[in-house]
């Protein structure tokens, strides 16, 4: 299958210094505050932060007396204790005194003074939300889900274009809102998800929306996109192949 969008720009285990101030909080207490974080790509699509042990608040790491082997070597596992909370297995400390936190062990992460969600932003990724007049038709098993001549197309490195459509373009009769919430470091926190119901079956969380997206993609606010991987999209009369991405196996 031909991939018609940019792929990962770096290889797994690639490292780079991060010039950004990185902070992380648990229970209202600052645990990490560093300007010397390092990006390490454990997967091709985005990096993890490795931070100096010296930039972690003293007394917040609790040794669990366990070693763990990883692709980056053998590390010692620590719990995290801060703000009256304790998170077991929250961090791995390596012999070079770099610390890898489990992302969800912290309540909040910040790059400079802007909160980020899900994982660090990839410095090699770009996200553009562009208004368009292309004709988009979205179907599932022949059932029309949406149709528009005024999409906002979101181009994000390593992912296929996402077509964000006005809610008046949706076939509301086949969409059922759910309580699902997901996080994206480039777009923010979703406000809505919808399951698609057709005579052929029910397909959970195929569409989503951001009521208050990140400023860089403000043009998608309130609009609705579908997973290209699981629906049939016709663009200007041409049926697109369904892409294969990490979301194909969600």
Topology:
Blueprint: E1 15-17, E2 22-26, E3 29-34, E4 38-40, E5 48-52, E6 61-70, E7 73-82, E8 85-93, E9 98-101, E10 108-111, E11 114-116, E12 127-131, E13 136-140, E14 143-148, E15 152-156, E16 162-164, E17 175-178, E18 183-184, E19 188-189, E20 192-198, E21 201-209, E22 224-226, E23 232-235, E24 238-239
Antiparallel strand pairs: 1-4, 2-3, 2-10, 4-5, 5-9, 6-7, 7-8, 8-9, 10-11, 12-15, 13-14, 13-23, 15-16, 17-20, 18-19, 20-21, 21-22, 23-24
Explain what you see:
The chain starts with 14 loop residues before the first strand and ends in an 11-residue tail after the last strand. The model has no long low-confidence stretch (mean pLDDT 95). It folds into two domains: 15-116, Metal Binding Protein, Guanine Nucleotide Exchange Factor, Chain A, CATH 2.170.150; 127-249, Domain of unknown function (DUF427) (Metal Binding Protein, Guanine Nucleotide Exchange Factor, Chain A, Beta Complex), CATH 2.170.150.40. With 250 residues, it is an all-beta fold. It has a seven-stranded antiparallel beta sheet with strand order 1-4-5-9-8-7-6, with no helix packed on it. A four-stranded antiparallel beta sheet has the order 3-2-10-11, with no helix packed on it. The chain has a four-stranded antiparallel beta sheet with strand order 14-13-23-24, with no helix packed on it. The protein is built from no helices and 24 strands.
